[in-house]
Structures are given as C-alpha cells and as structure tokens.
Amino acid sequence: MSTKRSDYIGWDDYFMGVSLLAADRSKDPSTQVGACIVSDDNRILSTGYNGFPQGCSDDDFPWNRDESLGETKYNFVVHAELNAILNAGGKSLVGSRIFVSLFPCHECAKAIIQAGVKEVVYLSDKYNGTASDNASKRMLNAAGVKLTKMKPTKAQIVLNFDVK
Question: For the whole model, what pTM was predicted?
C-alpha cells in the first residue's frame, strides 16, 4: 500500500498562490496585486487583479503614477479586491475569507466589509502606517473583520507546464 504525498501545499498557501497567480494577470508596470475569495468550506468563490474596467483598453488609459507627467492610473484602475468582489457575480460572500497579496486600501476595505467578508489574509503590508492603511485597519477592525498576516510554509511554489 502506498502512502500519500507529504510535500503537498496547505490551504492557505494554495489560496495565496492563486492570489499571486491572479496578480500576474495585471498589466500594471509598478504594482501587481491579486485577490482570491474563499468560502468557509475552502471553495474558491472568485478571483481578481488590479486593472482597468472592462471595455477600457489597457493601451488607451494611463499607467503613469507621477501626476507631474499628466493623468495617472489612480482614477481608472479597479483594485484586485473590488474586482474579486464584482467577479463573484452576485454570489454571497458573507462569511468568506479574502486572500490578498497586498493589504487592502481604505476603498477596498469598505467593499470587503459591505460584502460580508469575515477575514482578510494578506502577504504584504508595504503601506503600513499611511493614511489609507490606517483608515482601512480602523474600519476593518470596527466591523469585526479578522486580519491575518500570511506566514507561508514554503518560500515559493513552482508551476511546471511540462506535465508528463
């Protein structure tokens, strides 16, 4: 009798991996963010990444971050968390968890709270201490949303398209 594999990934690594894979769909040259929303029974409900709304060409809208150079992306980009919520297509997200590669901004925190998400699992908190971050954490805490800093069990997950 053979035994099961011991090097498989756990649920949290899996869902954060899906979030990171979604982030790779982003065409943003400076920041790629992904989100994966999961039910309490570990089923993926939706995914999203940061990019322009449907019908808005990635070639016609600015990716610029510097206001001195003209229009910036900030007025046009839909963040990964909001995209994942909208991509759920009306499914109930009440009681779900959202895995995000970057801690949500204050605008996404509002959407997360309104959607009924119970936990935010995040990988990076690089904007910790900014006004947006402080507002986000204040609202999420007030609404009783659990905040969990991800501690991956593996340094990397490698995808191999050369399946035999």
Answer: 0.93
